[in-house]
Structure to design on (119 residues):
């Protein structure tokens, strides 16, 4: 599991000390967050997308950030087209209409690229 801290810019050089203490209910596991996002993506965006391994994000609220992968048979997984967050306490899927439109646009661009030839 990865943890990313948002809104913090450590110095470019020198020494840095990060001491973090967070107390929050984690009612939604990374696995459950990924399942929620998979259901949302299939229902609302495309059946050719799925969630990848979530990262725990420490920001204004504690969330699981689930990368969205475009997968087109028979080409397989083509790459990441966006991310959707899930609140770890409530299980709420955090997205906007703009997020959905950006994911759709990136998917169109990625799908239009030619598949690399292998010998």
């Amino acid at each position: 599991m990865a943890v990313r801290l948002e809104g913090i810019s450590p110095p470019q050089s020198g020494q840095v000390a990060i001491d973090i203490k967070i107390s929050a209910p984690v009612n939604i596991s990374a696995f459950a967050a990924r399942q929620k996002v998979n259901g949302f993506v299939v229902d609302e965006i495309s059946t050719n997308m799925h969630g990848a391994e979530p990262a725990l994000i420490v920001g204004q609220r504690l969330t699981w950030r689930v990368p969205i992968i475009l997968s087109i048979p028979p080409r397989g997984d083509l790459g990441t087209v966006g991310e959707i967050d899930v609140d770890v306490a409530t299980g709420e899927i955090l997205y906007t209409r703009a997020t959905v439109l950006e994911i759709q646009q990136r998917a169109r661009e990625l799908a239009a690229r030619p598949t690399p030839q292998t010998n």
Summary: The mean pLDDT is 87. The first helix runs from residue 30 to 44. Residues 25-112 form one domain. The chain has one domain: 25-112.
